[in-house]
Amino acid sequence: MRWGLIGASNIAANHMIGAIRAAGGEIRSVLSASADRAASYAAQHGIPHGYADLDAMLASDDLDAVYISTTNEKHLAQAMAAIAAGKHVLCEKPLAMTVADAITMVRAAEAAGLVFATNHHLRNAGSHIAIREAVQAGRIGKVLSARVFHAVYLPPVLHGWRLDNPAAGGGVIPDIVVHDADTVRFHLGEDPAEVVAIKAASGLGQGVEDSCMSVWTLPSGVMVQTHESFTHAYATTGFELHGTEGSIVARNVMTQQPVGQITLRTEAGEAALPFADHNLYVRALNLFHAAIRGEGRPAADGVDGVKSLAVAAAVAEAAETGRRVAVNYGGI
């Protein structure tokens, strides 16, 4: 698999370049808005070519797939250009600035016969796979509620547009709520129906929210409570599922590292739930490559990305208006 990186990003440098190579892929080129940045990034990471023009990159390099990790407002045009050039696409979340734009991307790839995936890494974690398997095996009975603790401190290296640029998709809702929406959907197998929410700029956000709390209802009656933030330096992330026969309480599992602890509580007492410690991104890349070969589907496909964005959009609207908002999935 020959890859092009659309975006000379930190996530590509810290996670995706190694994962693509570990999954057997070859990175041929990288795109940046700056030619100098593209050249230096390519040299630093052993990538043959650096570009500042997307059309030139897509036309000049013999690529099979692209990984998009630019700021959110650029995803639509870049994905559509890649699809028009016949490239498979793995795109960072959120897929686009609006649900309608995300659907446009997904439908275009579908019409072209290309694989389109969303880089929702958490559903690839051994911890979340173990939780999902326990739920599906009925170990906590009928699920009644879920709680997601995803209040963290945004590292200084990631400050910038996430904290001060709503036009680029900044704010904690598009950055983290989409992850939590996908994780809840992954575990429960259904789509949130309605949400209520509040938001705040509590220390870091300038023109965007840096903290959010919301409650969602699911068609089955399950209620979900979530907390996302960029400002909590000493908090621990977590994911809880509570059912008629038991509870699953997981801590420190909403991270990019294969760490954390999961406790299963039932009438019999408490027991640790073991899980695999593989690299989340390598698993995602292996599944993406397999999907291109016609073997299965990506860990999170384009529809998954549309639906996580739709939940985040509903949370944003509910937080802005103070009203209960129905999630609009755009008919997908």
Structural write-up:
A hairpin with a 2-residue loop joins strand 13 and strand 14. The chain has 332 residues and is an alpha/beta fold. The chain contains ten helices and 15 strands.
Secondary-structure map:
Blueprint lengths: L1 E5 L3 H13 L3 E6 L3 H10 L4 E3 L2 H7 L4 E4 L6 H10 L3 E4 L7 H14 L3 E3 L7 H11 L6 E9 L9 H4 L7 H17 L5 E7 L10 E7 L5 E7 L8 E6 L2 E6 L9 E6 L2 E4 L7 H13 L9 H20 L3 E2 L6
Parallel strand pairs: 1-2, 1-4, 2-3, 4-5, 5-6, 7-10
Antiparallel strand pairs: 7-11, 8-9, 8-15, 9-10, 11-12, 12-13, 13-14
Brief overview:
This protein has 332 residues and is α/β, with parallel strands linked by helices.
Offer a few descriptive terms.
single chain; 332 residues; alpha/beta; Rossmann fold; Dihydrodipicolinate Reductase, domain 2; 2 domains; nine-stranded mixed β-sheet; six-stranded parallel β-sheet
Main sheet: which strands, in order across? 14-13-12-11-7-10-9-8-15
* Count, helices: 10
What radius of gyration results from the CA coordinates? 20 Å
Strand content: 15-25%
Total domains? 2
CATH topology of the largest domain: Dihydrodipicolinate Reductase, domain 2
- Name of the level-1 CATH class of the largest domain: Alpha Beta
* H/E topology pattern: EHEHEHEHEHEHEHHEEEEEEEHHE
Intertermini distance:
29 Å
